[in-house]
Structures
1.
Amino acid sequence: MRLVKFYAILFAVYSMSATSQNLNSLTYLTEEYPPYNFSESGQLKGIAVDLLIKASEEVGEAIKEDDIALQPWARAYRSTLIRPDTVLFSTTRTTLRENLFHWVGPISETRIVIIAKKSHQISIQSAMDIAQYRVGVIRDDVGEQLLLEAGVPRDSIQENSYAENIAQQLQKDRVDLWAYEENVAKWWIATAGFKTSDYEVVHVLQEGELYFAFNKNTDLQVIQLLQKGIDLVKETDNEDGVNKFDSILNFYR
């Protein structure tokens, strides 16, 4: 009889936890990926950060800046793969990743490219062309994954955890190429104090979209709630008549 009571209590506790889950009870992980998500003077900001917060407010489950943890990409990516109720952003949606996560968005269009110094006059037509160079990548980033999918050998790939380091390496000719998101790469090149006009896109690996990626063991109702919030942000205007999502984009342009 006691065993029956024990299981009844356990079931009740589980049911309460399952039904009480909401957006601000999840774990949110992000990285330094400007202009989509980044820190400035100790504050998290960016297109994706502002969209997440605004979307959660639209559905009455406000997420605060303190609910979001800033981590190196590889650590955050691997944590989201294995930890239930964890959300990673901004994440490029690819064929390889499609079944690894649940997806909410899109946040923005994105272009994963290979960047080189203009002065080196590098021409890339195929994966075999890339293989003859040293290519800087962020570990577990979409740039690295696309290179490996294309058949570029690991010997040609130099991993790093921080984009600013790769910008420095590219400037100092310690790597010849950088496989990364175009806007983010340019942001880091400028932040490192170099001229973006000295660099060029020599190859496009993929054009796609950025999303919020949810661990597969997350309540679908909560996932759908954030999607609803994002849709509301994109469909409605502020009091000044400017679309709410457009106002976020305009702030970071």
2.
Amino acid sequence: MKTIDRWLASPWRRSAAAVLAGALPVFAFPVPALWWFAYVALVPWILLARSAPTGKRAAYDGWLGGLGFMVAVHHWLLPSLHVFIFLIAGLLGALWAPWGWLVRRFLGGVPSPGRGAVALVVLPSAWLVVELVRSWQGLGGPWGMLGSSQWQVEPALRLASVGGVWLLSFLVVAVNVAVTMLVAIRAVRTPAVASLVATAAATSAAWVWSPRPDVDGRVRIAVVQPGVINGADQRFAREEQLTRRLAGQHVDLIVWGESSVGFDLGDRPDLAERVAALSRRTGSDILVNVDARRSDRPGIYKSSVLIGPDGPTRARYDKMRLVPFGEYIPARSLLGWATSVGKAAGEDRRRGTEQVVMDVGHGLRIGPMVCFETAFPDMSRHLAQDGADVLLGQSATSTFQHSWAPEQHASLAALRAAETGRPMVHATLTGVSAVYGPSGQRLGPWLGTDASTAEVYEVPLAHGITPYVRYGDWPVNAALLALAALGVTEGVRAVRLRRSAPGPRVRPARTVRESPVRHGH
């Protein structure tokens, strides 16, 4: 241990260790998908911050660990953003600086059992607030939330139906804190064991008592994934060819991926008629995604458009949450130079104004989202509240085909399904397509990045309201309340210490002696 302390005495070595420690959780996400690693991945980072010689150094450890975390979970953006990704990660990594300071505040030195018990609440709460702030779409959105690493764990999906991905993140961090206390801080092992028992009890309670979706029907939904094809005309022709194969398969809905149509249908009625002909041939409505300059209003939109046998219906959804730098540049007048160093958007896309639930017919209602939007739990929650029977995500990851991004993106749909109790279809132009049932269970095969095919899925329908849909982001509210209580407690403590401190010692005033005066004779 002394050898490690001596090695970390160098600020540069300590900084490098913080960056590496912060990057470790990336292995819990797909592609590696070592979900179990998430429960110990933060331990080295916590140990480093608690050993910091000062609170300021602990804040630096938090910041640099956050930088490492952000670069690791967004490494696939390097081809697009180049060096710019390190600037963004450095800015967002600063969100973890207070978390690092709190680690040292509650776990540094030899903490009392009471301080250890508080750490088990405060540190996960602080982490949740960091995830809340960085989840704002202008800061990159909720990609890489720690709880989303648990997408394939059935008990975790049950917890997601209670408190969403937020509850999973809280519990994952709490387990990491408890493990750190068990292995490194003997004085607080009792509250650590109690925390692990409480986590197991909460998971068991959710498993037994949380309502399960009641399956009350089935639909057949087809996903058309053409793969990487250069040219909008060639891509459309391939999608047309794959869709024709679905004739006679009694499909209720066909879904094409993001940017599957590269022309505005108002300007190209021939394309609209070709899709309508496919609808008549297959006996199914087709949900396409148009990425083009609109003919009826200025600007470029990404729009989900439902097309039936008679042509485009009135059902249209314009993407609301755009990818920073990918689809627009924040403060373009200031940061427009990013287009010269990467693949940032040359022209900002326009935003839609509201979410839309579409009526496909036969009583089936669908709620579309476009690409990046499937990472936001509030969007799928609102669609479920508005009566959507099936959630749909249309995506394309052609730029990132050979990275970890496609698999990680596909995994998010499992959480959105579990949170809402609604099945979710993740259909990609290129990337990984996947379908999940109302409990988040995977249905049928994933269509990998090398696939160019059409696949039909039997999708169970379920109704009812999950606790997460009913109560929303209550774990976040609880975390904010816990931190507010901490702030009040610390404030009162500081005032009491100031009042009880002895006053400054006043030196007694010196008496001035009269100097003897010689009197003359």
3.
Amino acid sequence: MLTAYAQLAASMIMVGANVAVAKHLADALPIVLILGLRCLITSAVLLPLMLWRDGAIRPAPRVLLNFLLQALFGTVLYNVALLTGLRLTTALQGGLVLATIPAVVALGSAIWLRERITARGWASVVLASVGMAAVVLARSPGGEGGSVLGSAFIFLAVCGEAAYVLLAKRSVGALPLLSASFWMQAFSALLILPAWIPVAGAASRLADPALLALLIFHALTSSLLAVLLWYGGLRRAPAGTAGVFTAFLPATAAVTAILFLGEEPTPAHGLGFLLLLASMILATWPSRSPH
């Protein structure tokens, strides 16, 4: 079980660290170019792995439609909104707003899947709302901070990720992990293709080896390794317990923003993080089974 917990923690640490990486890339390259190249790199890695492990599986049309929708919300909307928001706000603030994902998923489950929200679930939603408000209103000691518009874009990314999670519930087990990941990335590349080809000339900036290495790192960690580690951990750890490890996402995003981007935290950031952490724990902590 410790191995499973280590996989889950490593997955969320990678996702959290990529908030700072994504901000750096968004400052240097067009957003659609980052996303398009990321999807192509990941697809190129996944294709031979899929053929080797899973063979040439022909998914049913309804399964492909579900993966197309997952790509639209979970890859395109999530990343475009996230990268746009990170151009307007700090990586620290962006990472903390992402901590609202479990609460938004809970609300989405109630509205779309007609699942009942418990009192603990409603408490999680309230804490997430108050915590995000504290983060949005936070300002650095010099009076600067993330913008409300930037936080709004990142919250739109949260909604996209929540839609992806809810859609994924309908396709669990439909395809092996590598095949499912490949179709997600392939559809994502197809959807973003018309937008990034006109700005493809900006790829000349990738002649900078450091920027190219950062893009490859971003693609392989956020779109490939993080997913494989997460599902690897889920094979042995209960889903409810696994959800608690999402706390590593905003924590890692905050640490990397402070250490590597020089962003300054404030008491409001600290209060927001504590409220969001409590919200995540309430939303994801496994319920006790009746005796």
